[in-house]
């Protein structure tokens, strides 16, 4: 298996674990909140933790969504084009995502740094850890876009979504 596909599998695993963990925290927090409301009042920290979990759910899930084609995508134009032009359009799209991710990284770093001077009101956590979700999102989006570009240029990826369907997995194995 080519190096870029091995790297993609590792990042996919990391994102799946991160997404699952964030979803688990979200589920637990909301459950505590609902049960708390049922018996009187819910702990104040549950709403804050729910928001933080949603941020990390989006941060880890966005890279996966790019890989599987689940991000909002207007592919009517690409589907109507001859195959070489559609491939080029998908390559340019991945390049635009990579450039945008890289361009926003410095702003996300500054945003994360600001969090060092703040704490969350209910949990008392340093906001650096919460603001870092934007860094995680941009970094993973950039990684998956770069892997898509690399794979397309090497002929291992046609720019179509690389989901978990048997056909997609067989395609990855063949190339």
TrEMBL record:
Domain Tripartite ATP-independent periplasmic transporters DctQ component residue range list: 27-154
Transmembrane region(s): 7-29, 49-66, 87-109, 129-150
A GO CC annotation given for this chain: plasma membrane
Organism superkingdom: Bacteria
Any one Gene Ontology molecular-function term assigned to this protein's record: transmembrane transporter activity
Compartment(s) of residence: Cell inner membrane
Any GO BP: C4-dicarboxylate transport
InterPro entries linked: DctQ, TRAP_DctQ
Keywords per UniProt: Cell inner membrane, Cell membrane, Membrane, Transmembrane, Transmembrane helix, Transport
Membrane topology (UniProt): Multi-pass membrane protein
Pfam families associated with the record: DctQ
Main localization category: membrane
Subunit structure: The complex comprises the extracytoplasmic solute receptor protein and the two transmembrane proteins.
Function: Part of the tripartite ATP-independent periplasmic (TRAP) transport system.
Entry similarity comment: Belongs to the TRAP transporter small permease family.
Protein's UniProt name: TRAP transporter small permease protein
Organism of origin: Acuticoccus mangrovi
């Amino acid at each position: 298996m080519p190096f870029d596909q091995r790297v993609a599998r590792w990042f996919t695993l990391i994102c799946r674990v991160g997404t699952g963990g964030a979803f688990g925290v979200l589920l637990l927090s909301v459950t505590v909140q609902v049960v708390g409301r049922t018996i009187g009042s819910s702990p104040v920290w549950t709403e804050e933790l729910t928001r933080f979990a949603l941020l990390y759910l989006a941060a880890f899930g966005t890279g996966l969504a790019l890989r599987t084609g689940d991000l909002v995508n207007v592919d009517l134009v690409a589907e109507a084009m001859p195959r070489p032009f559609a491939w080029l359009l998908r390559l340019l799209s991945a390049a635009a995502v990579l450039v945008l991710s890289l361009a926003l990284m410095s702003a996300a770093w500054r945003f994360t740094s600001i969090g060092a001077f703040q704490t969350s009101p209910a949990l008392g956590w340093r906001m650096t850890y919460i603001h870092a979700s934007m860094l995680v999102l941009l970094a993973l989006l950039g990684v998956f876009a770069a892997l898509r570009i690399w794979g397309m240029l090497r002929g291992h990826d046609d720019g179509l979504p690389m989901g978990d369907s048997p056909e997609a997995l067989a395609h990855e194995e063949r190339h």
